[in-house]
Write a structure and sequence with these properties.
The complex is a heterodimer of chains A (149) and B (150).
Chain A lengths: L1 H49 L2 E11 L2 E10 L5 E2 L4 E4 L2 E3 L6 E6 L7 E2 L4 E8 L5 E5 L5 E5 L1
Antiparallel strand pairs in A: 1-2, 2-8, 3-7, 4-5, 4-9, 6-8, 9-10
Chain B lengths: L1 H48 L2 E3 L16 E8 L12 E5 L2 E2 L3 E5 L10 E7 L7 E8 L2 E8 L1
Antiparallel strand pairs in B: 1-2, 2-6, 3-4, 3-7, 5-6, 7-8
The chains are: A alpha+beta (149), B alpha+beta (150).
Protein name (chain A): Fla cluster protein FlaF
GO molecular function (chain A): structural molecule activity
Protein name (chain B): Flagellar protein G
């Protein structure tokens, strides 16, 4: 009788140990995955809090019969922004950076860079057919500023 | 004497079989639970990483095209930390509380809706003039509201 009890106990405990191992590994992996996502979310929220932009000037210029929208935006926050991730809405319509209407798009006079550092000014100039009423600039983290032209 | 040891042997084997089946069932249950937990954690982390922002300018009058096709155009930016699928079965759109099935989705600045990219949602829905409206966009449980006037 003694052997039966000990044998059965060993088998049962082995099963419990294996189950615990499986459950622990999965729970740990899942917890880490969710925790990483929360951390990324927190970092994004911090970046958003530290981001601020300010449209300094939005004006309509007439040069040789062609109308241009001239906008300067100042990075007033403390995060480095990406020019590629910055979106420009002229009169509520999305304007692509590679659009043929985009005459200039530069940060502090440099049109090659993608980095828009704090304190630097983004300047863009694009030709328009009709007079737009408003300009909106949206940064990568989602912080936006709009201005009446 | 022989009958005693053989009955012991039978009891021993029986107890081992019962213990093994109990342990097997238990392990199988825990395994099933673990795989469900793993899949759920993938879903939950994806939902947490999803973040969208409606960047349309409601003050510009470009949201609703009253004179043309009578459609609502909403610009949605991916501001989270994962790529999203720009498919109409992944994006839920409600206009004035009504679920929209006729939604055209195009990514404006790239081939896929990656982080930082903007998707344009075109909703074929004619709206009353001079009235207030709201559009709700839901992606992976992240809900954004846009209010505008026609």
């Amino acid at each position: 009788m003694g052997f039966s009890v000990s044998g059965a106990t060993v088998v049962l405990f082995l099963g419990i140990f294996i189950s615990f191992g499986i459950a622990y590994t999965t729970a740990n992996n899942g917890f880490e995955r969710v925790n990483d996502a929360y951390e990324a979310n927190g970092e994004d929220a911090l970046a958003r809090q530290n981001t601020a932009i300010d449209i300094g000037n939005a004006s309509l210029v007439d040069r040789g019969g062609q109308r241009y929208v001239n906008v300067t935006v100042n990075n007033a926050g403390s995060t480095t922004l990406s020019v590629d991730d910055t979106d420009i809405l002229i009169g509520g319509n999305y304007t692509n950076h590679t659009s043929s209407n985009m005459e200039t798009l530069e940060v502090n006079g440099n049109n090659e860079t993608d980095i828009w550092l704090p304190g630097e000014t983004l300047h863009f100039n694009l030709s328009v057919e009709t007079n737009p009423d408003r300009v909106k600039v949206v940064t990568g983290p989602g912080v936006a500023d709009s201005e009446v032209v | 004497m022989a009958s005693v040891s053989s009955s012991h042997l039978i009891l021993f084997i029986a107890s081992l079989i019962i213990a093994a089946s109990v342990a097997g069932t238990f392990t199988q249950g825990v395994q099933r639970l673990s795989s469900a937990l793993g899949e759920r954690s993938v879903d939950v982390s994806g939902d947490i990483r999803t973040d969208i922002s409606i960047i349309s300018d409601p003050g510009s009058g470009a949201v609703y095209n009253a004179s043309g096709n009578e459609n609502v155009t909403v610009l949605v930016k991916n501001t989270g930390s994962r790529s999203l699928e720009a498919e109409s079965d992944q994006i839920e759109v409600l206009v004035d509380g009504r679920y929209q099935t006729n939604v055209g989705i195009t990514v404006l600045d790239g081939s896929a809706w990656r982080v930082g990219n903007v998707a344009k949602l075109e909703i074929s829905q004619s709206l009353d003039a001079d009235s207030d409206h709201r559009v709700v966009v839901i992606v992976n449980g992240d809900k954004e509201v846009l209010q505008f006037r026609t």
